[in-house]
């Protein structure tokens, strides 16, 4: 249930792609909530709908995709009811998206000052150059870029991968966004740099009061840093829990499979566990559970009837008939 601290509330959000008379359901009746100063993880294997959920929130679903139903309530306003001009003002200033590859957000032909200056100009052209320069340097320092006064005129190729990601994060917070969606923010970074980026996310949460949705396929990395985690499979949410709950007592068979596939430093472990079978065809979804074809616990009911995302006694959410067994 939504409370006064909830800044984003997705209700039955559904996004589809139409291809020659057929439709592919990329986001399937997704419910998701984010509270103030909360870091929420969204995990699942590639193609499960994580990134498309992020694009739907910002209404930047690529053609031929379209949001066909649901609500996206951000600070009391349904973003799906806003005109394009209104939603454009929210992108970047209230909600920002960080892509997994910082180079996709940075133009190699322009220096860092020019690119951050363009972000400011897109929303406020009244400030003078010196004011904007001081503003940009301040926010580069906030994300841990040393000697920002000198590096501001360098080009993206002169920064390391971790430093480029910090520049992109500074872009996201530059205009005071209260919600940042980070799509695989540590992809292609080494382990130490990954931890540094997550430490920065935690610092910004505390210093600026920013909420984060962190999208990843790396459940272990997410679980270390997030307050709550949503597990996604075939376009829908199958489980939501705190990090401790998810690791100590996962309820959905898919979540258990993801955890079983994480490498462990255990003597005698010869190979990783795998989730057998194939992901469902999103164009021809079954009547029953989407995971049933890969689940060792399935029974007749699972094949014929879909379970709703239900609340457990300890305030978790799970979509499985046999989750309590």
Condensed summary:
This protein is α/β, with parallel strands linked by helices and 325 residues long.
Verbal overview:
This protein has 325 residues and is of the alpha/beta class. It has 2 domains: 6-94 and 177-193 and 203-318, Rossmann fold; 108-175, no CATH class. Helix content is 31%, strand content 24%. It is built from 11 helices and 12 strands. It has helices at 50-57, 84-90, 112-121, 129-142, 148-151, 161-173, 191-208, 219-225, 243-248, 253-260, 300-304, and strands spanning 6-19, 22-35, 39-43, 65-74, 77-78, 95-98, 179-183, 211-216, 228-233, 236-242, 310-311, 317-318. It has an 8-stranded mixed beta sheet, with helices on both faces. Strand 4 and strand 5 form a beta hairpin. Helix 4 packs across helix 6.
Overall geometry comes to globular
How would you classify the helix and strand content by structural class? alpha/beta
Annotated CATH homologous superfamily of the largest domain: P-loop containing nucleotide triphosphate hydrolases
The stretches of 5 or more residues where confidence is low (pLDDT under 50) are none
**Total number of domains:** 2
Order of helices and strands: EEEHEEHEHHHHEHEHEEHHHEE
Instruction: Give a count of the beta strands, DSSP E runs of length 2 or more.
Output: 12
Give the number of helices.
11
Mean pLDDT: 91
CATH class of the largest domain: Alpha Beta
**Percent helix among the residues?**
25-40%
CATH level 3 topology of the largest domain: Rossmann fold
CATH architecture of the largest domain: 3-Layer(aba) Sandwich
Main beta-sheet annotation: 8 strands, mixed
Distance between the termini: 26 Å
Largest sheet strand order: 6-7-8-3-9-10-12-11
* Percent in strands: 15-25%
Cα radius of gyration in angstroms: 21 Å
